[in-house]
Amino acid sequence: MTLFVDTSAWYALNDRSDQHRDAALERMSRISSGQVGLITSDYILDESLTLISARTNRKTAVAFGDLLLKSSTIQLVTITEELRQLAFELFRKYADKDLSFTDCTSFALMKQLKLKTAFTFDDHFRQVGFEIW
Hints:
- The chain has helices at residues 7-14, 21-31, 42-55, 58-70, 81-93, 101-113, 124-127, and strands at 2-5, 37-41, 74-77, 117-119, 131-132.
- By secondary structure, it is an alpha/beta fold.
- It has a 5-stranded parallel beta sheet.
């Protein structure tokens, strides 16, 4: 199984006071078995580093960035022009929902890679048809 990892999961893993921290740690311990692949995007990296730095501290954000960028088990995908265009189509389509453009880039990437499940605590993924793990 391959999971898309969203900002809310990365943040919960890096902020000891986050309400989802225990659930995130428990899920990550199951992932560590090696039978689950992890994919995230450069937009999620950007959003996660910014959020972790703002709500915890720069040291924690840098440690997270080092871990993610040096990982051989987490695939970091760059959002291409094609994916940005698809994301904008989704942003327009779901105007009735309170989705960020970054959410839409995640949805576009998941559609392109045929991923059905996200490691997230953001219900927007479920609202547009993905499973939350």
